[in-house]
Amino acid sequence: xxxxxxxxxxxxxxxxxxxxxxxxxxxxxxxxxxxxxxxxxxxxxxxxxxxxxxxxxxxxxxxxxxxxxxx
Length: 71
Hints:
Layout: H1 3-34, H2 39-45, H3 49-70
Helix pairs in contact: 1-3
C-alpha cells in the first residue's frame, strides 16, 4: 500500500465532508430565512414538535442530496 495514495484519499474525504456540511448548513439557513416564522423560537420556546420533525426531515433530505452530489 502506498502511503501517499492513502493520504490523498483521506484528504479528499475530509474536503468532501466539510463541503457537504457547509452546503447543508447554508441551505438550511436559507430555508430558515425564507420561512414565515422563527424556526428556533417555534421549536425551543413553543415546543412545536411537528415543526421539529419537519425541520429534521428537511435537513436529512438536504443531507442525502448533498451526499449524492458530492459522492
